[in-house]
Amino acid sequence: MQILITAATENELLAAQEAAGLSAHTVTFAVTGVGIAATAYHTVKQLLARPFDIAINTGIAGSFSDRFPIGSVVCPVKDYFGDSGVQTPAGFSSLFDEQLLGENTFPFIDGALHCPTGGLPFPPATGVTLQTASGAQPRIDELRQRFHPDIETMESAAFFYVCLSEHVPFMALRAISNRVEVRNKAAWNIPLALRNLHDAVKELLKRLS
Q: Could you give the 3-state DSSP secondary structure of residue 80?
């Protein structure tokens, strides 16, 4: 099986590389860089270079939900671009609100990007992808009210968009490193998240055999 595994940073990808060390699959690894633009560019570059049976995006994430404490690993199945739109005096207005894009324009469904992969041992999650990570309470409250997200990343929706557009099967794994709250890096636990991400990738590759 030809598998592409991507992550935004070297540390996140290292967890996947170590987990895939003894895999029977042929695995290509790629660091995409942080953020929507870098993720889209480098994912497309990989997908156009050779055919893959599945693409997997891995990394860490912030959690909005008490159901997903630090160290949890989730499988995002729906994701939104959370800051693509217009800031108005009344608050954020999306591209769909502004009628700049139809909410069911491919590959969107009701304004969201959906991952069709199911049947995994990891709990499903709804994500919101932001170019600017949230760290102030008014913005966090606005995101909760509009998108009802479980997690926040800076890449997942871009990865979903590219894979859906290129008709490549895909999925994502995210390990929770922090709560989405007023920014407090002292409360983060990235080492725990990366350890658990390693174990999750290892389990996933076994199930793909």
A: strand
Proportion of the chain above pLDDT 90, given as a percent: 86
142 touches 85 (CB < 8 A): no
DSSP state of 109: B
User: What confidence tens digit (pLDDT) does each residue in 59-108 have?
Assistant: 999 999 999 999 999 999 999 999 999 988 888 899 999 999 999 999 99
> Can you tell me whether residue 36 is helix, strand or coil?
helix
Listed residue (48, 35, 49, 47) closest to 7, CA to CA: 35
Tokens found for residue 147: 């998108």
pLDDT at site 23: 73
Give the type of residue at 131. Answer: Q
CB of 153 closer than 8 Å to CB of 108: no
How far apart are the C-alpha atoms of 13 and 11, rounded to whole Å?
A: 5
* All domains in the chain, ordered by first residue: 2-207 (3.40.50.1580)
Closest by Cα among 19, 14, 43 to 161: 43
Closest C-alpha among 138, 115, 142, 141 to residue 126: 115
> Under 8 Å CB-to-CB from 85, ≥6 apart: which residues?
92, 93, 94, 95, 97, 98
pTM: 0.94
User: Where are the extended beta strands (E) located within the chain?
Assistant: 2-7, 26-31, 54-63, 73-81, 85-88, 91-94, 113-114, 124-129, 151-153, 170-179
